[in-house]
Amino acid sequence: MALLESGENYLETILILQQRNGNVRSIDIAAEMNFSKPSVSRAMSILKKSGYIIMQPDGRIVLTENGLKKAASVLDRHKTLTAFLSEILKVPHDIAEKDACRIEHIISPITFAGIKKMVAEHEK
Length: 124
Description:
Elements: H1 5-21, H2 26-33, H3 37-49, E1 53-55, E2 61-63, H4 65-88, H5 93-103, H6 109-123
Antiparallel strand pairs: 1-2
């Protein structure tokens, strides 16, 4: 099942919160994304059915192996694109962040690989 942009954003947010706080709950996601709890609950249900997350009995949300792989990929695209836009193209960081968030969902693997290589060379 193909994951929509919103699903990718949720997985990315879960990974970021997990890295920052350790444990992740729906309320944390709602606060981070500025979404309502019912919206987050619906999204978590979809992600669970799709095999991207596990909802623990105590309310913790854990990424499955598949979910972690997808979330890490989205986060890598976000960070790389933000670096490309802000460091190489000199776009103001706040605009680079917003644009990267949009681009990360539609960029082709070939184009992303080229940008990633350019960012890595720039950081040397």
